[in-house]
Design goal:
Blueprint lengths: L3 E2 L1 E4 L8 H20 L3 H15 L12 H4 L4 H7 L1 H11 L9 H10 L3 E5 L4 H10 L8 E4 L11 H4 L13 E4 L9 H11 L6 E5 L2 H11 L2 E5 L10 H7 L4 H11 L7 E3 L5 H5 L1 E2 L4
Parallel strand pairs: 1-9, 2-3, 2-6, 3-4, 4-5, 6-7, 7-8
Length: 290
């Protein structure tokens, strides 16, 4: 029997879009340009980058170059940005063509929204890049609510006005309500997921959760008592390029050990979306939240 859902809670990265492809398409050319400009080998740069990402809890740290002493020593923030402008440009240009929704995501979300179902996004990605992607992909207002961590702090020596080139509206959601997850908390945290459900004023049986990670999404939903749907089509760990992300990731050894431990528990998703997001419509009866 299909679950009847008044609320869809969905992960974003690798569930609605291919985050890994976006990240890799920008970071690899960035790394190559940084190697060329600095004279520091790519392997050495990776060892210098990872601690910075770990310190700030993201693999998309906007002030990465300024935070590496071997790169920024003796230079102001502006001088670093000027010297490494080709690397920054390579990052942005590499990402541009890859920022797109997976096939069937847009039409599926609109159909679900058309039935009056509440749609909530829940991500561990920081606010800035999440907002940027939601707006670029036309999802501001398609999602009713977004839950994300706040952005990392701005370094004291950085004048953010010099970094932001667009109107202030570009940096905030105008239609989707944006709420923040507790500082220092990340998936898999069933307590946060339960709190999100409770804030919506519905029972857990009226909610379905979709995500691409067996550990961070599926198991979390199961532990929270919410119907889980595994977006298998978004699984990226088996790609050969994934090694680069592992080399510079913000994940700590504790994170890695936890994931390995939980893998051994053989997490079994209740429902698997094998090829596309639209399979959700075949598996769930979405009804009005109101």
């Amino acid at each position: 029997m299909k679950p009847v859902a008044k609320v869809l809670i969905t992960d974003l990265d690798n569930t609605l879009w291919d985050w890994f492809k976006i990240w890799h398409s920008g970071f690899l050319p960035f790394l190559k340009e940084a190697e060329k400009i600095s004279g520091i080998s790519a392997n050495e740069l990776k060892t210098l980058i990872r601690p910075v990402h770990q310190e700030h809890g993201t693999s998309e740290y906007s002030f990465l170059l300024q935070s590496i002493p071997e790169i920024s020593k003796g230079m102001t923030v502006s001088e670093v940005r000027k010297k490494y402008a080709p690397a920054i440009a390579a990052y942005n240009q590499g990402q541009k063509p890859t920022i797109k929704l997976y096939p069937t995501v847009a039409e599926t979300l609109l159909k679900i929204r058309g039935r009056g179902t509440r749609i909530v996004g829940y991500t561990d990605s920081l606010a800035f890049y999440t907002i940027r992607r939601l707006k670029k992909l036309g999802l501001d207002g398609v999602l009713d609510v977004l839950y994300s961590p706040r952005d990392h702090e701005i370094p004291p020596e950085v004048d953010i006005a010099h970094f932001r080139m667009y109107d202030k509206r570009v940096y905030r959601l105008e239609k989707t309500q944006h709420l923040y997850t507790p500082k220092g908390e990340a998936k898999p945290n069933p307590h946060i997921l339960r709190a999100i459900v409770d804030a919506l004023g519905v029972s857990r049986s009226e909610v379905v959760y979709v995500g691409d990670s067996l550990i961070r999404d599926v198991k979390m939903a199961q532990d929270a008592g919410v119907s889980d749907f595994y977006a298998e089509y978004g699984h990226s760990h088996s790609r050969p390029e994934y090694k680069l992300l592992q080399d510079v990731s913000h994940w700590t050894q504790v994170d890695v050990d936890l994931e390995q431990k939980l893998k051994k528990e053989h997490v079994q998703p209740s429902v698997t979306l094998a090829k596309r997001f639209a399979e959700l419509l075949e598996q769930v009866e979405f009804v009005s939240y109101y």
